[in-house]
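Bit of a strange request maybe. I'm writing a small parser for C-alpha cell strings and I need a real example to test against, not something I typed by hand. Could someone generate the C-alpha cells for this chain?
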Amino acid sequence: MNLNLQGYRVLITAGAAGLGRATAEAFLREGANVHVCDIDQKTLDEFSFKNDRESAGKLTKSHLDVTDEKGVQALFSDLNANFTGLDVLVNNAGTAGPAGELETLDYSAWQKCISVNIDSQFLFSREAIPLMKKQKSGAIFNLSSTGGLFGFPYRAPYAAAKWAVVGITKTMAMELGPYGIRVNAVAPGSVSGPRMERVIEASAQAQNIAPDVVRGQFEKQTSMRTFVSPENIANMILFASSPKGSKISGQVLTVDGHTEGLSVN
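Reply from user aminoacidic:
Good idea to test on real output. This should exercise your parser:
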C-alpha cells in the first residue's frame, strides 16, 4: 500500500531509540524527511539510516532535553528554516517514572515523570501548531499508554501523566479541527524492548517478586497474551498520518493486543 508520505516533514521526540526510532525509520522508508531529537547523545550519534531505495527520506538529528522550553523554541526556529513547515509531530518522549506505593514516592521523581510525559507535549505542540495552522494541515500524535486508560498499581505518576495525555489530545483535536489539523493519542500496550525490561525489573522490585512473574502478569492482561513491537506502533502512526487516515482525529489509538485491565495479580 502506498501511503503517499513522500516529502512529508516529520518531527519525532525521543526518536533515536526504541519506539521513536522505529517510527522514524518507517517514515524514512516511505520517503518522508524526518528530524529526531533525543536527550541521549550516544544513542543519537549511533542512529543512522541507510536505505537502497532512491525515494527514501532524509534524516536529521539534534540533542535536546524535551522539558527545556528555550531549547524547544530554538529547535523549532531551526526546523522552520530548514523544513519551512511541519506535517507530522510525534510527541513520543516519555519516562516510566518511579515505581512503588504512592506514599513511598519521592516528589522530585513524581515531578520529573509528569514533566517528561506531558509538559513536553505541551511545549512541542505549542510550537508546532502555528506552523500547521499556517498551512491548514497537519497531524499530531501524543503518546499515551494503556496505563492511561486503566489504573496502574505501583505506577501512579506514569498513569497520571498518560491519562493527562488523553485529555490534552481530545482538547487539541477540538481546537485544531477547523484548521485541518488532526490530533490523536496513541496508546501502546506492553512494548517489547529494553525500556519494557526496565519497567518489569522496577515492578518486580516494588512487589518483591521475580521479573518473570511480572512479565507473565503483563502478558495475561491482554486477550492476545502478547507484547507488541515498536513496529506495530509505527505502522499505526504512519497510516493515521497519511491521506488514507485523513478523517481520524480525537481518538485514542490502542495497539496492545486488547488490554483487559491492569492489575498486580
